[in-house]
Amino acid sequence: MINVILNDIIDIISGGTPKTSVDEYWKDGTVGWLSVNDFNNDNRFVYNSEKKITKLGVEKSNTKYLDKGDIIISARGTVGALAQIGNPMCFNQSCFGIRGKKNIVDTDFLYYSLKNYVRNIIKRSQGSVFNTINLASFKLMELKIPKSISYQKQIAKILSDLDAKIEVNNKINQELEALAKTLYDYWFVQFDFPDANGKPYKSSGGKMVYNEVLKREIPEGWGVTTLSNWIEHDKSGDWGKEEEQGNYTEKVSCIRGADLNGLNGKGEVKAPERFILKKNAHKILEIGDFIVEISGGSPTQSTGRMAFITAETLHRFENPLICSNFCKAVTLKEVHALYNFAYLWNKIYDAGVLFGWEGKTSGIKNLLFESFVTNYEVEKPSEEVMKLFYEKAKPIHAQIQKNLQQNQKLAELRDWLLPMLMNGQVTVSEAKEELGMVAEAGAAYERDKEAIDSLFDKINYDYEVGVVVLLTRQILDRTYGKKYVHKMLSNIQFLEELPVFKDLAFKENGWGMHSKVLDKTIANQKYVYFEDLGNERSVLNFNFKHIKEVSIWMQKDDYSKDFVLKVENMLKIYQKSLINKDMDRIELFNTVLECMAVLETDDFEAVRRKMGSWKMHEEGYATKEDKFTPYETQLMIDFIKDL
């Protein structure tokens, strides 16, 4: 190990802010512009920013681009937050960009070294934040690094593997959450829960009845109720004492409003340890309880954020849990209503309904909880359907919480190894032994994805697939393979978005966008069949013995009519001269759409870089960038911008 001054081994990049008074610098901006709010968490990489600026804003300000892998560190306000750049982005003047000098320091190693350095500074300042970082600060920061770049990379690889496994678990949880939400929407928004014969209720002709209270149709046998009728009782929050004193003897972890997203797996949980009175032990949270934030929020965020407790949630904590005074805990009458209540509450919250049920005390927004749950009317599904949904959702959320628990242990191991490796107290070989229990991230992800698929045997899009194949044959006079259907639905999602598609969990595949749920639907071959063309080639064709059934569905309700219109619009696009019904052109269209959607920009260089990282499984091409020329890409970008 050698001691180095940070300033000697890095290039420092300064940020800036375009004038906020100039609309052209901000309106319809596509360039990521980072502030500390975008990376003030424990994630290694930052891939996106809340605010965007225009290319003109970049040119007319002091901000600079950071490349993928560069480091960003916050210098004012919340000082010392760190991340590596996942996609090229700009940043404000309250941060610095750091780029390791080649052949001196490995940038991945530098990220972890700085992370260790910042933690030591905070520890020495007894947990408080240090005031500021300026250019002179980098000349005062002294790090201990291995002289060998190779050894630096070995250290970074060990720590990166742990972060990679954490990221894999997060990706799996995102897929689980998306698929569970799809299941809820499929059953309780589209009303296609399994009927007595196991078929989708509404799509199979299940009787719908107009409800005067809700002003819409609901399935026959369902009722109307208020949320209070689901609730057995509630528990007020508690804050207790910071230390054990007098009768405050019961040690607990206190869940605050800021911890709710983390409890659900979308951030950190920093629940402080507190001590409460023994007589208040009835406030301790139990399996099936909900925590609702009743005070707080912001002008753009209502109160009412929610999390719920499962057995696996409790396993993540050493202490019993309570909620703080700014929250309220709710216990339901029926345990099988747990997931229905959760998804219904989130649906209401996401729709902004709770803004209308807020009051103010001393400038703080308060949710009028009792008034809301007593007066807000909702549909009440049948007990049978709720029980069935509970059985489907329970293992999904159990797995989510297990992954979060594993992430905690991985993070603890990483944070223990970090200073040991940096100080030379643990060698790379010793660390590898410690990491013997950590599975290879990629293999674990593929294995766990297969397990996810088995949870969703009831979700399908039989009618949608049938309509795509039928209309394609009628309008384009063509038949294509199953990849075409994936591209069609993902293109609709990118350009026009139907609510049902937002949770289909499309992922980048070697040949284009792909959905496991859609794959299983096509395999059902309910209204379509595979026509063998020989030479191991086949296309999807429509099974015309089902033409009446599918035609009725196409005119059945607003959703089906809207879906038909979206498919017809996409087929018109496919007829335009640049695409001209060609499957390779459709693939390029799908590829560029995905790149523009993910990057949130139509910048040619950014799109090409993204295509260069999109690996293919097609003979002769390693990436999408290899398959499609720069000229073709620019034409397609311009084509999409004109749509």
TrEMBL record:
InterPro entries per UniProt: Restrct_endonuc_typeI_TRD, Restrct_endonuc_typeI_TRD_sf, Type-I_RS_S_subunit
Keyword Nucleotide-binding belongs to the record: no
Pfam families: Methylase_S
Domain Type I restriction modification DNA specificity: start-end pairs: 6-178
Any GO BP annotation: DNA restriction-modification system
One GO MF term attached to the UniProt entry: DNA binding
Gene3D superfamilies noted in UniProt: Bipartite methylase S protein, DNA methylase specificity domains
Keywords, alphabetical: DNA-binding, Endonuclease, Hydrolase, Nuclease, Restriction system
Stated family: Belongs to the type-I restriction system S methylase family.
Entry protein name: Restriction endonuclease subunit S
Organism: Aestuariibaculum sediminum
